[in-house]
Every structure is written in structure tokens, then in C-alpha cells.
Amino acid sequence: MDRWILSYDDYDPDAEGLREALCTLANGYFGTRGAAPESSADGVHYPGTYIAGCYDRLSAEIAGRSIDNADLVNMPNWLPLAFRAAGGEWFDPDRARREGRLLSHRQELDLRRGVLTRLVRVRDAQGRTTRVAQRRIVSMDDPHLAALETTIVAEDWSGPMEIVSALDGRVVNAGVERYRDLPGEHLTREKCPEPDDPELLLLRASTVSSRIGIAMAARTRVSVPAERGRRTEDGWTGHELTVDAHEGEPFTIEKVAAVYTSRDHAIEEWGGAALTAAARAGGFDALLERHTLAWCRLWRRCQLSVDHVEVQRILNLHIFHLLQTVSEHSVDLDVGVPARGLHGEAYRGHVFWDELFILPFLTMRFPEIARALLMYRWRRLPAARRAAADAGHRGAMYPWQSAADGREETQQVHLNPRSGRWLPDHTHLQRHVGLTVAHNVWRYCEATDDIDFLSAYGAEIMLEVARFFASLAAYERSTDRYEIHGVMGPDEYHDAYPGRDEPGLNNNAYTNVLTAWVLQRALDALNVLPEERRTELRERLALTREEITRFEDVARKMYVPFHDGVISQFDGYADLEELDWAGYRERYGDIRRLDRILEAEGDTPNRYKASKQADVLMLFYVLSPGELDEVLRRLGYEHGPALITRTVGYYLPRTCHGSSLSALVHAWILAHVDGEEAWQIFLEALLSDITDAQRGTTAEGVHLGAMAGTVDLVQRCHAGIRTRGGALQLEPHLPPAIGELRLGLRYRGHWGIDLTCRQDLLRVMLRPGATFPIRISYANENVELHPGGSWETPLDHGRTTG
Ligand code: BGC
To answer: Any idea which positions bind substrate (predicted)?
Structure first.
């Protein structure tokens, strides 16, 4: 098994959607699913192309309501390339397979170089055998370019061969079955004259309501003399080529595509920019060389290796897809990170709280990308302030789902495919998303010491989020505590109390505890700013002494519910019924979408102690044991040392992992409690997309939070790296299945920290060249490590930093 290759040795129409998602090529600017170039959307194939940040909103009538949805738009398809021996049928893998003429089909994704290769041997109905090799890239060097090279050999025949190489703008958003009743026609086709250069094609379109101009150009060249024609229809333009194929003699068709939009910088007009880029681009090999070098640079910054080949291969796949979704090319685009990557249309390309799982890996390798993702949030502070004001609060209320302008994009109704019913969707009540944003700012600053970011943007986000939660928290005189009512926690299976029409729950523990923590950190952020910046910011935000006193008061007096010696998910959780887990498992097998099962039965998960995903347990994921301990103590909640073990033991069997994030969080927490079970759940999280464990959902886009989260887990949980208080704290939890783990990291302006973690040893080296030392803390030791120096200690799993 190769750590850098994802390969499929056959053609399986049933698995095609999954393979297309996993073989997506992207560069942070745009992405194209790994669909067969000759295919169009037909139920088996779905050749989607998505440009980061290009959303469009359409309205529809659903269940008697007028609903609008913003979608990440499926852009024109640059892939189309079809061929046939004259007089035969166009190559179609599905038909050839059905008729037993698809002799072989192999697909290989080279993760190290970002190249998708396809090797096919096919016999047509006339008995002519043709061999085809295709290589495809979406350039990591020039974000506007992609290329497809097709080499064809007529194995046992000679004669004319017809080829069509096209750009297809007749596409709609139809990649997710349950959204198909909703309008998906986001592109208005535009007429444009054919380019003067006969090698070029140009297609133009614009999005319907966001009016983004899109231009796609393509250049097609053939390595042998060809008769050329060009045909343009409404929304489609193509080169029609005829080549004389000679038995055994390969020839190559090279297609280079260029994509620009009206959102791009440094252009005059996108159509002209696309044409110039396609005309001037080098040939496939030249593009490939620069693309490979770009990937090589990225991988150098992502050093993370474990001596477990299969685990390493999947980690590489996850890093690959993360860097394809957000890269140096997305830094200037003002985009967030879509939960399903640039890989499909699930969740409409929206941005959730998943940065929580994504940023830590980026921060310690590509801090500029992490910063750009935080800037996406900063630019949407005005929208978040408006949302808070509309809800009668102060500060900034970030939306649960975000897209172009930062308004709340959560769907108002969702379809239960099991019952066929459209149901109200209350998930926008997950106010905790704002806490995540503030938390991410703080963690980014801890790891990078980027005080400029904190002063100019970060502290403002944190204070405005703090302001919102301080205003959301209501003082309860009888208990002398602050409470937050009418929200949802991360567990989406509980959105209301049983029997009540009003959505929302009171005192979700995750929200309340994190509120206390964020309020404290927002004040810390203010305090670490240089004096003048602090004064400026306080003036700008009109932050008064009374308000600061309120922050301090709320941070000391938030209410946290407990029952049976564990933290309660929310007030009243203890009164819910136990679910008959065994019965449901026996009846349904897979009960991850318990919400759909229960709703179809006329029931609701609101009645049961049954969670979709980690909720209370998120506290142990987001905060270190020391931090959690500190918040709870400050709030006046004394708890014994076994709180984590007890709480994990309580919620784990009551969670059905309906979100891909759930296994990840449990693996993280269990690593501190039960090594063997943690490893099994880690493998589950790792295999989630590659095996499509959520049954069909990966075909609609990868689960980027879980992908990045598994890589981060190796870094921050297995190697146990924490960036706190200006020191690199180490508390490894290396699973027995891993003998050695090596990481290369960036930390606080240091570009080369090498960490080796073995079962019996922990070593950190600071590469020479740095100008200042770093502080390391392990157990009760504090060490100053100088450039060129190294520090090591025998590993003793009993010692922790807390
Ligand atoms: C999860 C959320 C997550 C979203 C996008 C949902 O299924 O419940 O926590 O943010 O997917 O990944």
C-alpha cells in the first residue's frame, strides 16, 4: 500500500459519486469533482465545479411557505471530452460495462502531486479496442488554471477518430437528492462571440441573484494533425476534432481551462482575463511541473508522519482535501471554509462552526490561511451586529450557517427523506457558533502571538461576541446566577422540550460554560493589547466600565446544570426518557439518523436521552482539563477528579454519532481515559469518508471538519501539543498502535519545530536560524529551547501538565 495513492481498480457505477467526491481536485480558488470527462449529471455521474465564495440565492415555495436558499453555485463544467472511432458510439463507461466491453478501468489519485490519472481499455460495438490514459490537474500554482491530458491508442485498428472537447454551462445545482425539488438554476447564460484564435473556446455566464460574472476559457491542442471545427449552442461551446488514428500509435489531446469571475482581483474584465490565461498557459507538462512544485512546498509545511501505513495514507488524504479547500489562493478571497469542501453541494456550501476542527492544523502550518478564515468572520461583524440587534441584544450574533454576506443561512425547513415530510428547522438556535468564533481567535493568537491581528480585528470579534452572550444571559435573582434560555447545543437532535411548541432549550451546559470562558478571554484580549490600542478599541466599541463589570459578573455566575454526578446537557435533560437503544439497533441496524427514524414513527428525539453528537463532551474537547477546572471553580462548582471519566461514561452510550464530528470528539476524549476504545473510535473517524460510513453522504461532499479534525487529533491529542500562556505544552497520548509520530510545526514566528514522539521518548528540536528561544512545558518541567537546540525526555504516561 502506498501512503500517497488513492486508487480504484475497477469501474463501479454505484460507488461513482463517492469516488468523484474523494477524487475532487481543487486549489482553494475552485474545485472540480473527479467525474469522468465524458459524463454529465445523470444519476451516476455528477461533474460539479465550485468556485470559492460564489453563492447565489433563489426563492421557492415549500410546504406552503416562501423559502429562499443561498447555494454554492455549480459552475460550468470545463471537463467535457468525448471520443469515438468514426461510425462507432461515443465512449460511455456505463454502456461499455453493461455490454461487457469495458476491458479495464483504473483510477489513481496521487496525493503528493495532486494528479488524477485514469487508465481505460475499451472495445466498441464493432470490436475495435482503444486504450486511453488521462491525467488531470487543478493547478495549485496558478489558481485559475486546470488541465486535462488525454492520450489515446488505437490498439488493433486504424481510421478516423472524432473528439469533442467542450465547456458546458447547461448545469444546475442538482447534486443532492433531497434538495432536488428546490430550484437549482443559478446561472444565466450569456452570449459571447467565438474567440479569434481557433484553439480557444469561451463561455460566459452570471449568477442569477448575486450577479457574479463567470468566464471559462479552454484551449484544446492535439499532438497530431486534426481537422478542427467549433460549435457553439446556448450555454455550450466545443471543439470538434477528427484525427487519423493509426494502430499502436498514441496521440494526445491537451485541454487547458482558465476560470475567472467578476470577484477576482487584478483584472479588468473576467472574460478577457480567462482568454488570456488559457492562451498563454504552458502545455500540460509545464503546468504539471509548476503544480507539482507547489504541492511539494505545501507538503513540506505539513510534516506529519506515523509509522502506520494505512493511517498515514488516510491522514494524507485528509490533509490533501483540506489544502485543496483552503489554500494560499483563498487567503485573499474573503471566504470561509465550507463544511463539505469544494467537493459537493451538501449543506449548500455553507460555513458552520467546523472551523473549530479545521483551524488548529492550519494555525501551526499555514497561519496566514487561519488568519484569513478569521478575517472572513471579522468582515461579517456588521451582519452579526445587525442580527443581535434584531433579536433585541447587544454585540454580535454570528449565524449558525453563513455564506456570502454573513446573514443567517440556516434552512427554515428540512426534508426527512424517510417520512417525506418537510419539517421546521430550528438549528439556527445554535448560538454557540459565536463562542467558537471567539475561541478560535484566541487560540490562533495563543499559537501565533499575532498581536497585530488581535489589536486590529481579533479583540473586536471577541468583545462583540462576549457582549452578545453577556446580553443573552439573564440574571436569576433566586439563584444569584445567570442563565441562557431558548438555545440549542451542538447536539441537533434536541431542539425543544417534549410536548412544547416553542423551540429552544434552557442552559445548555456547553454554551453556558463556554460563555463564562469566552467572557474571561475577551477581557484578557483587551488587557494584552498595548495601552493606546486598548483605549482606542474601548472608545470605538463604546465599551464602558459597567459593561466590563457585567462581563466579569456573568463569567463568575453562569449557571451550569448537573445531574447524577455529571454535567447535564441542558436543564431538564435528567427528566427525559431512556431510549431503547438495543431495540432500535435491532430494528433499524444503522441508527445514526435517529431523528429521521423517530420522526417517521411519529416520535421525536426530544423525548429521549439520545444525542446526535458530542454536546457536553465538547467541553472536554475545546478546553483542556486545567481550563475546564478553572472555569468550573470560578463558577463555584466543585467537582471530583473523576468528572471527565464519569461524564464520558454517561454520554457515550447515549450518543448515536449522527454527525461525522462525533466520533472524532469521542476519540479525542477517550484518548485521555481509555486508550483501546479511543483507538477504535479514531479509526472509525478516520474511515468515515473513505468508506462513506455516513451512507451516501460523502458523495455529496467530504466532511471537512472530521477530515481536518483527525489530523489535528494526531497533532494535539496523540502528540499532545497545546499552545498556552506563551509556552508549547506537551502532554502526549500516543496510542499503542503507533510506535513513532513525527511533526514539523510553526509556532509563534518559529518556522521549524520538529517533534518526535515515541512510546518511550519525547523529543523537540528547534531548527537553527530562529532568533529567539521557545518555552516548552512538560509535566512539571519548564524548558527554554534555543535555536539549533534539542530537548528530550523519557515518556512517562503518568505525568501530565493539566
Ligand atoms: C453537525 C454540525 C456540523 C454540520 C456541518 C451537522 O451534521 O451536526 O455540528 O457543523 O453538520 O458539518
So the answer is: 353-354, 612-613
